[in-house]
């Protein structure tokens, strides 16, 4: 898990919010499916297994809360669905975000994460030259995955 449940509980309390089973389960589901890009409905189906009385509206509210707390990222993968994934952290203590990017195969539609972030120098240059401080970015690469390329050969 990118962030411990204890740290999450502490963060909720600091914001004056209740620690609820629903919130913990949503975070847990996202953490357990860290390499997946889940819709709110995907999250709902998995949380419902352990907490059958939960409603979809609660999932949406919880995901929005996690977005506001910068613990999850919202991504659009050109399929018309809003998807979520747990955020990456370099240093959980200081909250430095680590970005990752998505590789999207135009043949099979597979989406995978590329974890090396090589844009820090560019962000620093932008800030130095323009005074604009980049707080987030999202990058998608389109191409053909290894499996599809091998199948063609």
**What's the total count of β strands?**
7
As for the CATH topology of the largest domain, it is Arc Repressor Mutant, subunit A
- Span of the ends, CA to CA: 38 Å
Largest sheet: 3 strands, mixed
**What is the alpha-carbon Rg in Å?**
17 Å
* Number of domain modules: 2
Q: What's the CATH class of the largest domain, please?
A: Mainly Alpha
Task: Please tell me the overall pLDDT.
Answer: 84
Shape label: flat
CATH superfamily of the largest domain: Winged helix-like DNA-binding domain superfamily/Winged helix DNA-binding domain
Q: Summarize the amount of helix as a percent range.
A: 40-55%
Molecular structure report:
- By secondary structure, the protein is of the alpha+beta class.
- The protein has 2 domains: 1-98, Winged helix-like DNA-binding domain superfamily/Winged helix DNA-binding domain (Arc Repressor Mutant, subunit A), CATH 1.10.10.10; 99-153, Dna Ligase, domain 1 (2-Layer Sandwich).
- It is 42% helix and 20% strand.
- The protein contains 6 helices and 7 strands; from the N terminus they run H-H-H-H-E-E-E-E-E-E-H-E-H.
- The chain has helices at residues 5-14, 21-32, 40-50, 56-68, 120-130, 146-152, and strands at 72-76, 82-86, 88-91, 96-98, 101-105, 111-114, 140-143.
- The strands form 3 sheets. It has a 3-stranded mixed beta sheet, with no helix packed on it.
- Strand 1 and strand 2 (82-86) form a beta hairpin.
- Helix 2 (21-32) packs across helix 4 (56-68).
- The longest helix has 13 residues, at 56-68.
């Amino acid at each position: 898990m990118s962030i411990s449940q204890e740290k999450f509980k502490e963060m909720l309390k600091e914001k004056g919010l209740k620690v609820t089973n629903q919130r913990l389960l949503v975070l847990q589901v996202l953490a357990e499916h860290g390499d997946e890009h889940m819709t709110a409905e995907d999250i709902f189906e998995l949380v419902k297994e352990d907490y059958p009385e939960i409603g979809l509206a609660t999932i949406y509210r919880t995901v929005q809360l996690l977005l506001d707390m910068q613990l999850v990222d919202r991504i659009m993968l050109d399929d018309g669905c809003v998807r979520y994934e747990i955020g990456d952290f370099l240093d959980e203590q200081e909250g430095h975000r680590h970005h990752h990017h998505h590789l999207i195969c135009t043949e099979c539609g597979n989406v995978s994460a590329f974890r090396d972030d090589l844009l820090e120098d560019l962000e620093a240059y932008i800030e130095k030259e323009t005074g604009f401080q980049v707080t987030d970015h999202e990058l998608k690469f389109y191409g053909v995955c290894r499996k599809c390329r091998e199948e063609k050969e």
